[in-house]
Amino acid sequence: MAKWWILVKERFSPASYVPMILLFTWANGLYLTNSLEQDWNWSRFAVVFVLLLSFFFRMRLFDEIKDYEVDLKINPTRPLARGVLSVAQVKKALLVLIVLELVIAGSLGLSPFLVHAIAIGYSLMMYEEFFIGDLLRPHLTTYAVSHTFVSALLGLSAGVAMTGMDLTQLKTEHGLFFLMNWFFFNLFEFARKTFAPEEERDHVPSYSNIFGCTGAWALSISQAVLGVALIYFLHPSLWPPIALTLYVAVSLAYLLRKSRKTAAFFRNISGVYLLVHYIILICILGV
């Protein structure tokens, strides 16, 4: 277990991931609960949180395996690359987590099981890079958005798991809400791979390297704008646009001075904004 804790601390920091997964689960679950006029169930929420925590951790493990060969050359200090755990051990853990998720989802009802099984299936396709990895890998943005789409399916899984709703009850507005997750996870993905010119490394693709600093910033902001537009369409409230405006304003520091410090600030403030966005959603929907 000590070796697994090393991997968790270094590659799946509880301080970063747990609050994000908690808020993500809460917001998506609360949305569908309110839409169906059901009472909020904290016990059920705890189970759904564990389900999504397992899913996100499994995504991290997938990436560790996929990046293993590259990490041996470029990031040799990462846990798998330096031999803390073997690829075989991680693959066994992945199988255990998949079974665990199916059991948990199944215990919540048929609809939660079916939706989460679809999300698992999509995640396995992601792991195989949709069987067109050679085609996808040279196109960083296309590669990213094809993978982050799983967040929309996971949001749906959280909502259905919280409510146990019949899938025939799903409406267009439900789909639009869960699609919002895709845009915000795109924002997170684009921002975390946006750097100052002095931070760029050979053979390590980044959005700032491909589109320039201004282009990478604009790409990130565009996703926040799309996500907020969807929320405003579904739930007209000034709080999401206000939060977006503040985020855009402070993130301009990166464009005004493209340094290592401001690039790190942009990456960090984008993560904070993601959390703030989901907190605002929870408040709008009613805690």
TrEMBL record:
Protein biosynthesis is among the record's keywords: no
Membrane topology annotation: Multi-pass membrane protein
GO annotations of cellular component type: membrane
Residue spans crossing the bilayer: 12-32, 44-62, 140-162, 211-232, 238-256, 268-286
Keywords carried by this UniProt record: Cell membrane, Membrane, Transmembrane, Transmembrane helix
Gene3D superfamilies tied to this protein: UbiA prenyltransferase
InterPro entries: UbiA_prenyltransferase (IPR000537), UbiA_sf (IPR044878)
Pfam families: UbiA
GO molecular function: transferase activity, transferring alkyl or aryl (other than methyl) groups
Subcellular localization: Membrane
Name of this chain's protein: Putative manganese transport system permease protein
Annotated organism of origin: Bdellovibrio bacteriovorus (strain ATCC 15356 / DSM 50701 / NCIMB 9529 / HD100)
